[in-house]
Design brief:
Helix content: 55-70%
Strand content: under 5%
Number of helices: 8
Shape: globular
Structural class: mainly alpha
Order of helices and strands: HHHHHHHHEE
Radius of gyration: 19 Å
Strand order of the largest sheet: 1-2
Largest sheet: 2 strands, antiparallel
């Protein structure tokens, strides 16, 4: 297991601040049955940066302090934590956005349904509706915006140097760079593959 460095701590702190700021300040529905939390696009980053998980968890706690649902601080934040931990274990960049969608649809959908219907027969109807609507918002944030982040971050030289080597290998194997021919290629000084 890798040590948590000062750089990791800085990354976690920056992500916590960005997550909280995006959630609190953007003028779109961030809480409730119909929501799209653009900050959730950041929950795909543990696929590249293991140190992103604690920062996103803390950022979500801060953002959820502003939620009209009291339980959101606990359950909404736990959904984000579970999603980040699960995302960090994904083997494919195309599956990396799936854990936030599933975790939030189920956990936040149930939390909102409980707040709306309590423990009554209406709970399951409310849960079905809320799981679908929260899941759709997560799908937009994580697959549309999160996938863009997964594509763009390794292209930035600074971030490419920070991403652990085994995480970069996940990306190269998905892009088709895992065949024997690709393993024997050398890199030129400008980064293009040469034979």
């Amino acid at each position: 297991m890798r040590k948590f460095t000062t750089r990791d701590l800085t990354l976690a702190a920056v992500l916590a601040a960005v997550y909280a700021a995006l959630t609190i300040t953007l003028p779109v529905p961030q809480y409730g049955a119909v929501q799209i939390r653009f900050a959730e696009a950041l929950t795909v980053l543990p696929f590249l940066f293991p140190a992103a998980t604690p920062g996103l968890f803390v950022g979500c706690i801060i953002a959820n302090l502003f939620s009209p649902f009291v339980l959101d601080v606990v359950f909404g934040s736990m959904a984000t934590l579970l999603a980040c931990l699960w995302t960090s274990r994904m083997t494919s960049r195309w599956l990396a956005p799936l854990p936030p969608v599933l975790c939030n649809a189920v956990i936040v959908g149930a939390e909102i349904a409980w707040a709306e219907a309590g423990i009554t027969p209406a709970f399951w109807t409310a849960f079905g509706f809320n799981a679908v609507t929260v899941g759709l918002g997560e799908l937009i944030a994580c697959y549309a915006l999160g996938s863009l982040l997964l594509s763009a971050m390794p292209q930035v030289p600074y971030f490419r140097g920070v991403i652990p080597a085994e995480r970069l290998e996940r990306l190269s194997s998905v892009r088709g760079g895992s065949g024997p021919e690709d393993r024997t290629r050398k890199r030129s000084p400008v980064g293009r593959a040469v034979r």
